[in-house]
Every structure is written in structure tokens, then in C-alpha cells.
Specification:
The chain is an alpha+beta fold. It has one domain. The protein has 2 helices and 4 strands; from the N terminus they run H-H-E-E-E-E. It has a 4-stranded antiparallel sheet. A hairpin with a 3-residue loop joins strand 2 and strand 3. The longest helix is centred in the N-terminal third of the chain and has 59 residues. 13% of the residues are buried.
């Protein structure tokens, strides 16, 4: 006599399948959180660097404005480098976006032009970061 063997179908998951699925989901969640954290840190640095670049450019424009104002005030235009050097140097810290930026301006007389260097520095994650902008301003009045 032959017996008909009926196999029972099992529905559901085994314990090993559940553990593997939980492990895979945990890896995905940790990866996503790590990516979000890195994005936030890099975004903060990028914002600070952009603000520093704008502050450095503003420093250049302040020197250029002073140079042009000297020419407008004087009936005989002069290349008043001494006034520029005397009026630019250390500035009080600039508070922007909850962060403190330090801007310094250095001017060197090269004869028929001046070289203006503006450095903006700030603290980020315990490190001092800085951005520097250098330009030449020529004595185009002579």
C-alpha cells in the first residue's frame, strides 16, 4: 500500500531570517544617519567659508572706497598710501550667523600700485580656518 504523504506548508519566518532582516535594516538606518550627520557638518563649514569670502571681499571694497574718497577730496589727486596703511589693520571681531570672524587688512606699497591682502579667520570644530583675498590697486590717476 502506498501512502500519500501530505506535506504541511509552513507560513512565516524563521528566527534566523528575522535576525538577518533586522541586521540589514539596522545597517541601512546607521548609514543614513551617518550621511545626514556628515552633510550637516559640511554644510556648516561651507556656509562659514562663504561668509568669510564675502567679508574678505568687503574688506577689499573698504580699502578701494577709502582710496577713491581720498582722490575725490584732494583737488590735486595724490596717491595717499600712508593714509590707507594708517587706517586699515586690525578690526574688531565681526559676529555673523552666530560665529565670530576676525578680519585683518595688510597694505604694501609697491610704487605705482598697492597690494591689499585681507585675511578672515574663524574657529570651527576646534580648528582655526581662514580665507585670504589679495588684489592690486593701481594708481590709475597718474
Amino acid at each position: 500500500m502506498s501512502r500519500n504523504v501530505v506535506k504541511k506548508r509552513k507560513y512565516g519566518f524563521t528566527l534566523i531570517e528575522v535576525i538577518v532582516a533586522v541586521f540589514v535594516v539596522a545597517l541601512i538606518v546607521v548609514g543614513v544617519f551617518s550621511l545626514v550627520q556628515s552633510t550637516i557638518v559640511y554644510r556648516s563649514f561651507a556656509v562659514s567659508q562663504l561668509q568669510a569670502a564675502y567679508l574678505a571681499q568687503e574688506g577689499i571694497e573698504l580699502v578701494r572706497n577709502r582710496r577713491d574718497a581720498n582722490w575725490i577730496r584732494n583737488p590735486i589727486p595724490e596717491w595717499d598710501v600712508a593714509d590707507l596703511i594708517a587706517n586699515f589693520g586690525g578690526e574688531p571681531p565681526i559676529l555673523l550667523g552666530g560665529r565670530q570672524f576676525d578680519r585683518s587688512t595688510a597694505i604694501s606699497d609697491e610704487g605705482d600700485y598697492i597690494e591689499v591682502t585681507v585675511t578672515v579667520s574663524w574657529q570651527e570644530k576646534g580648528e582655526t580656518r581662514s580665507t585670504e583675498v589679495i588684489t592690486e590697486m593701481h594708481n590709475w590717476y597718474q
